[in-house]
Design goal:
Oligomer: single chain
Shape: elongated
CATH superfamily of the domain at 87-122 and 183-347 and 387-504: Outer membrane efflux proteins (OEP)
Largest sheet: 4 strands, antiparallel
Number of strands: 6
CATH class of the domain at 87-122 and 183-347 and 387-504: Mainly Alpha
CATH architecture of the domain at 87-122 and 183-347 and 387-504: Up-down Bundle
Radius of gyration: 40 Å
CATH topology of the domain at 87-122 and 183-347 and 387-504: Outer membrane efflux proteins (OEP)
Order of helices and strands: HHHHEEEEHHHHEEHH
Structural class: alpha+beta
Amino acid sequence: MRDAKRRAQDANAAGGAATAASLLWLAAAISACGAVTSLTRPEGDGGWDRARREAEIARRAAAAGVTYEGAAGPTAAAPAPAAPLDLPASLEMAASGNRRIADARERVLAAEDRFDDVRGRLLPATTATGQFTRYSSDQTTKVILPPGLLPPGTNVPNVEVRAIQAGVFNVTTRFPLDVTGEVRALVAAAQAGYRGEQARLWATTLEEELLVVQAYFQRLAAERLRGVTEQSVALYREQLANAEARYRNGRVTKNEMLIVEVALRDAEQELRQRQLAIEQARWSFNEVVGADVNAPTAVADVQDRPETPTVDDALRLAYEHNPLLSSLLEEQQRLDASIRSLERSRLPRFSAGGAFDYSTSDLFQPQQIGSGFAGFTWDLGTDTRREAEIAEARVTAEQNRIALERQLRELEGAIRSVHDAFEERLAALRTAEAAVNQAEENLRIRQQQFDVGRAQSDDVLRAQALLSQQRAVLATALYEAHTRRAELQRLIGLPIAGASEPSTVGHRSERSGNSGGEG
């Protein structure tokens, strides 16, 4: 009876196992069809068809603010302002809309994640494993007893050594014991890396804000130069009308009239070039501030003259605030800490912890067992790889020291050059203000002489060219002085007009509101 029951159990178990195996084979065959198709095509498609790729481009185009057929339209992240933008407002737009600044913020967040990863080596690590097993039958064994030990007629008992099904669970917690300080050195290196990324974020911010300033004043200069060219065109037209009238009266030759006509055509072509320069400056400005590329933005004019510190003060401030110097210093600290960690890895690594085991089978007692342990691992470095890493890290640290010295030299040269260029532009502005008045008076005299026949058209054209030249210098010198000041502020590392240095960037508490570059 018992044997029949066991045979029935074995048959049921075998049937269930066969059914399960059939289902597994069927699932494997279905999945293999798609796998074979994707693995036999060298180019593949990643599961994205043409429509999916176009939809992705359309979404990115909408977020980027570019013209793309099928895009959902410009996002509300960087709308075109209704009023002309001043420089502080332009810098504020760039802080939230510039893509390179957003990319630098993401690198800071990545540095924070690297710190979290290293810090986790000081925290306890807990692992849990579990497994449920069902066999086709249980396992038993007969006990061999000495003859006469059991009463007559008593069957020899079967001892079950493995149940037909059982579950086993284990939880282990391991506490690292950083006795040598290896991990703490890695934490210091990760913190220095985070500070270095913050410094590089500020350097990127200043670089992009300098581009904003350059695009802003290039646009103003292009508009002013267009105005100068329009004045020249108006004067040439007036001069051509006078020359034609005098030619009809026989007071000038046709050659003189043609000279004025050619000068007018050149000025009109220059006017078209000025308009193109304005459009190019608008596109560049929209790109760096984060507005839609073809947005009809406008900028407000600037009339005040900039001020800047002396060369000695600029050098002193730069050594304290320049973000590139700061990033190199943080990199030096990171490399030194990494070398200390590698050197301390020569020593044993200690750990301690505990474990808990539980089994659903009652063949053995107790079913749950706790344990504690302490131990160490020691890499003796017989493969010499660690020593090679230490040597390489020392070479990298020395390279960084050389880069720091080079940066100091380049910084001083750049500051002196930009400061002198700033002073030269202010001097050019003062000179142009006086020269414009003199050139206007010279043109007035030449026109009067031409009217009475004491001057030729060439004389008037040369006077007009001189006036246009001085007006162009006057129109651009002030804007170039503002640009030189912004370049000096970037070298020093202080905020450019209207901007503020970020104090806390990339902490996890701020991540919930950052979707990563949609604007």
